[in-house]
Amino acid sequence: MGTHVIKMPDIGEGIAEVELSQWHVKVGDLVVEDQVLADVMTDKAMVDIPSPVHGKVIALGGQPGEVMAVGSVLISIEVEGAGNLKESAAPVVDKEPVAPKVEAVVVESKPAAAAPRPAPVCQGPMVAREADERPLASPAVRKHALDLGIQLRLVRGTGPAGRVLHEDLEAYLAQGQSNASAPVAAAYAQRNDEKQIQVIGMRRKIAQRMQDATQRAAHFSYVEEIDVTAIEELRAHLNEKHGASRGKLTLLPFLVRALVVALRDFPQMNARYDDEAQVITRLGAVHVGVATQSDVGLMVPVVRHAEARSLWDSATEISRLANAARNGKASRDELSGSTITLTSLGALGGIVSTPVLNLPEVAIVGVNKIVERPMVVKGQVVIRKMMNLSSSFDHRVVDGMDAALFIQAIRGLLEQPATLFVE
Q1: What residues are annotated to the active site?
Q2: Which residues in the chain come in under a pLDDT of 50?
């Protein structure tokens, strides 16, 4: 028997060190070729590290949250034959690394792409989660739970990585009705427990980027109200006519199109600012970052060359990228290179938000939820579908009036949707 040592690979782009985000194996596990051993985090994306050999894990070279140099020993595997371990190699420790001194470490794992979804099974009316623990769930599921008056932390999730699904809410309600007499005193009991959570992986990268953005850029936000009745009617008409053959359209492709058209008159918004070199680069290509919530945190996959895409082309690409991001399969190239960002919380979009810039970009357009409200149109009170755009800009580069005019241009395009397609 021999030992095969796998070193931290050179992922490229001049990266000298990466963060070990998660192990998928432990000491003693038998692994096969191409099995994913670990996830590592670069500045731009999560990267899978597969096994090149069959064998048994005998040592792990680090622990989640540790920053490791390229070329350092990542994992050692016992294999048939001589292996690749040379006498000059670093010594192998036949035990797992010492865990950090915390009461609990939460590491959110990526769901396996091929894993079948289990049928919802509610094993009880409540799940023991901490009061501050945030269950995994999509914005739509959170909105559904809010409408039903359900606390998500009490619902057992049967989706990947324990994600709460719509079916789980239904199972919870059914179980709750059959256990209506269950004691509720625990909900009012005093608590003195504490939990320390190590900030690692994607959450660490998000924290660093948000802190860097707020410290370096001079943020200011602008909110504009938009009547989206007409564009929603157009969207419904197109979905009814072409949805079966071309796929359903959400509002996002229309927003991407509005950005593309508005940027023709406001090229200063489609730019990157290198504050160290004091250089602003305006780009002709419109690469729209679409902020997407995944199980491991916020990611921004990029719809490249949005200026050259039709509505359905944009819709297909947005859907593909969102699925890749949520499943942890988005590549580094798919998560980098945006020139302007679009962010939306969907049904949970609220009334107003103050999005943080995605540096080095100088503009981010935030989408709030659509609500029906009485509005005065031509002297008559009518019900209209209204939505706010809450957008932020880098005041070092973008003047306030230009920002207002840019968003008002988007407003005009959305309120008169035919102008989106007039050249």
Answers
A1: 395, 399
A2: 87-125, 180-183
